[in-house]
Design a protein that fits this description.
The protein has 2 domains: 4-68, no CATH class; 71-369, Alpha-Beta Barrel (TIM Barrel). The chain is built from 15 helices and 12 strands. It has helices spanning 15-21, 27-34, 41-49, 53-68, 109-117, 139-152, 163-172, 177-187, 202-208, 215-227, 244-261, 287-300, 311-322, 339-342, 353-362, and strands at residues 3-5, 12-14, 71-75, 77-81, 126-130, 157-160, 189-192, 231-238, 264-271, 306-307, 329-332, 366-369. The longest helix has 18 residues, at 244-261. The chain binds ligand V47 and iron/sulfur cluster. Residues 86, 88-90, 93, 95-96, 132-133, 164, 209, 212 line the site of iron/sulfur cluster.
Length: 379
């Protein structure tokens, strides 16, 4: 029986066991993975084209355990979607409304204060804030939102405003992206969420979000934030009109940016939810594709430390299984998420901390509470 040395941790895996998972298409990639060689775009396509889900998971898990050991992270957080009024009309979005339209809303600073105050008894460490591109809000609204949150809960970390919102604020208030980020940071911003990346391909953007900033601009804003000391996340919206080649190109563009700045904290694949959108004739993604996206991301994004399934979108069950397919982060408790629920997500609004811990433990991993910047919080 031949043994193969798999990682620098000197784990040896019997050949027959490997053959259970790895077929001839994946064999060269397996060799690269154990040599810790960077995968190419051709490798990425082979991975996406493979239906050997267990093989993909086996490979991704080797990398996951090399980077993250047996830990699985979660954060105690709260979401606030401050407005759904948006000048864009992305075809995949069920959340946005035009000003004056039925169900259009803006949360006042007082509403946000109430929402935070109602949960002061919970050990929330992060507030996650995103909204539409609302031309009717003054600049002070954004700064006041951040500083007021900090005054109510000084230790809370604020992960707010995607690159799309930052570009919008800079544009409509006539200042540079740098100035905008620095002012938000001074008002209390800790990090930026990864939304708005969608798929970088201009072809896809033209079809699904023609008014949104380009993929190149999204990356430019993320890199600018990193340069100014604001870390951020990265996402990819999959399961609509994109090709597998376009998914690979998206991931490699993120990898290139990360080589440059090391500023991305985590990558989160977002599964498209079609209900109530202009693309409602498309199907929801399958659990198979959800797990495949986690595994391929883990394998291609060799310079990202954390891969996070968003349980609100893929369900807690898939997120739990994803912990064996490359993922190491369960996101968080999430309270009051609107964007995916407007698009037909049937998941709950809240996953209590005890449930997150149980899901992680049942998956054979060690639960670790983290903060926004991925520092461990000892309980
Ligand atoms: O930018 C919009 C996506 C994003 C739909 O950084 C949709 O920790 C699926 O970015 N179906 C917002 N997705 C959510 C987001 C996010 C979520 C969780 C964690 C983090 C993080 C970031 O949701 C949008 C867009 O890409 N989205 N509509 C839809 N129908
Ligand atoms: Fe507006 Fe964002 Fe929805 Fe696009 S995805 S319409 S930018 S809220």
């Amino acid at each position: 029986m031949g043994n193969v040395l798999t990682t620098d941790m000197n784990i040896s895996i019997p050949q027959e066991k490997i053959r259970l998972f790895i077929d001839s298409d994946l064999e060269p990639i397996y060799q690269k993975v154990i040599q810790q060689e960077r995968l190419s775009s051709e490798d990425g396509l082979i991975l996406y084209q493979s239906n050997n889900l267990l093989g993909l998971g086996f490979l991704a898990n080797l990398v996951r355990e090399r980077i993250n050991g047996n830990d699985a992270l979660y954060v105690y957080n709260q979401h606030i979607n401050y407005t759904n009024i948006c000048r864009n009309g992305c075809r995949f979005c069920a959340f946005s409304r035009k000003n004056g339209e039925q169900a259009a809303y803006v949360l006042s600073i007082e509403n946000i204060v109430q929402s935070l105050k109602s949960r002061l008894n919970e050990p929330i460490t992060e507030v996650h804030i995103v909204g539409g591109l609302n031309e009717y809000l003054p600049y002070d609204y954004y700064l006041e939102m951040l500083s007021t949150i900090k005054s109510i809960r000084p230790s809370i970390q604020i992960k707010a405003f995607t690159a799309v919102e930052v570009a919008f604020l800079a544009e409509i208030f006539g200042q540079s992206v740098e100035e905008t980020i620095l002012e938000l940071k001074a008002a209390g911003l800790t990090a930026m969420p990864g939304g708005g990346a969608e798929i970088f391909s201009p072809r896809v953007r033209q079809l699904i979000c023609s008014e949104k900033l380009s993929g190149k601009d999204w990356i430019h804003i993320a890199k600018t934030a990193h340069r100014l000391g604001v870390r951020s996340n990265a996402t990819m919206l999959y399961g609509h009109v994109e090709t597998l080649e376009e998914r690979v190109a998206h991931l490699l563009a993120l990898r290139e940016a990360q080589d440059e700045t090391k500023g991305f904290l985590a990558f989160i694949p977002l599964s498209f939810h079609p209900k109530n959108t202009q693309l409602s004739d498309l199907h929801k993604t399958s659990g198979f594709d959800d797990l495949k996206n986690i595994a391929v991301a883990r394998l291609l994004l060799d310079n990202f430390v954390h891969i996070k399934p968003f349980w609100i979108m893929v369900t807690p069950k898939i997120a739990q299984i994803a912990l064996s397919f490359g993922a190491d982060d369960m996101d968080g408790t999430v309270i009051e998420e609107r964007i995916t629920h407007m698009a037909g997500a049937e998941t709950d609004q809240v996953l209590p901390q005890m449930d997150l811990i149980r899901l992680i433990q049942e998956a054979g991993r060690i639960p670790r509470q983290r903060d926004t910047l991925y520092n461990y919080i000892e309980n």
